[in-house]
Amino acid sequence: MALSKRKRAEYFRYSQYTLLVVIALVIAFLADWEQIRTAFFNFKTMGDMFPNVITIALKNTLIYTALGFAFGLALGLVLALMKLSSIAPYRWIATIYIEFFRGIPALLVFIGLAFGVPLAFQIQFDIYSTVMLALGIVGAAYMAETIRAGIQAVPKGQVEAARSLGMSQGRAMITIVIPQAFRIILPPLTNELILLTKDSSLIYIIGLARDQYELTKFGRETLSRSPSLTPILVVGLCYLIITLPLGYLSRYLERRSGGKKVSVL
Predict the structure, then answer these.
(1) Partner of 254 for a Cys bridge, out of 31, 90, 187, 192, CB 3.0 to 4.6 A?
(2) One-character DSSP codes across 230-242
(3) Are the CB atoms for 83 and 99 separated by under 8 Å?
């Protein structure tokens, strides 16, 4: 007797579960667990990484990310308003900036600020200024499009109502539109913060003093003195300490906003 479509789907699902269990058992029996423990869970190496991995590397990663995000958010807001401006040259400048910095690797921006600017203009930035500018310049290109989309998602009736009360266009934008836009774009901005957290690892290209190490640089230096991959595992877990709560926050904010999304294309 032919099976129904529902029964076939049920048998197929059970066969997939069975296959996964078999693969897990094969791995469990064939894996060299002692070698895995030595390669990834060297407790002596873990102990040597603490507390510096927290008090130096994790702390610096948070500082670098916060600086870059703050500068990028401010610059992104300016670029978004320029792109929405009725003045054509402002729109052209904002569009060229956004397309350019969305199209090149962030690493090039770090190299340019750390090595190119000092050579060309004899201006030397300190480590905090360099990372703030580099992360902010790249992040602003993405955040500008997110903010622009959020502003355009605010109903036009809000502006019309504000203008009917005698508000100027600028005041209506600042007091009515932008606060509502930011409530809409909080989830994608949280995702931008996660990306900046990972991009902060690019600061290694500049060359850092030990007390300036962020997580990736700290992990690489420890790895060079370690016989195992444990430093990479520890550093990865530290990144997860930052990014997982931000990911949950982004999903929570998206649910709070009713799942409303904005297009940044």
Answers:
(1) 187
(2) HHHHHHHHHHHHH
(3) no
Q: Report the distance separating Cα 109 and Cα 101, nearest Å.
A: 9
Task: Report which of 77, 251, 90 is spatially closest to residue 179, judged by C-alpha positions.
Answer: 77
| Res. 258: pLDDT tops 70 | no
CA dihedral 154, 179, 190, 253 (to 10 degrees): -70
Q: Are the C-beta atoms of residues 110 and 130 closer than 8 Å to each other?
A: yes
Return the residue matching tokens 């995702």.
191
Distance CA 236, CA 38 (A): 17
AA letter at 45: T
**3-state SS string over 11-74?**
HHHHHHHHHHHHHHHHHHHHCCHHHHHHHHCCHHHHHHHCCHHHHHHHHHHHHHHHHHHHHHHH
- Look at residue 263 in the predicted model and tell me its pLDDT: 52
How far CA 154 is from CA of 69, 147, 161, 176, 262, in Å, comes to 24, 11, 12, 9, 11
Torsion of CA 169, 170, 174, 176, to 10 degrees: -10
Residues 6 or more apart whose CB falls under 8 angstroms from that of 49 comprise 218, 222, 231, 234
CB atoms near residue 238 (< 10 Å): 20
Q: What is the pLDDT of residue 25?
A: 94
* Residues 228 and 38: beta-carbon distance below 8 Å: yes
* pLDDT at site 232: 94
For residue range 75-89, list pLDDT tens digits in order. Answer: 999 999 999 998 999
Whole-angstrom Cα distance, residue 79 to residue 114?
24
How is residue 1 written in tokens?
A: 């007797």
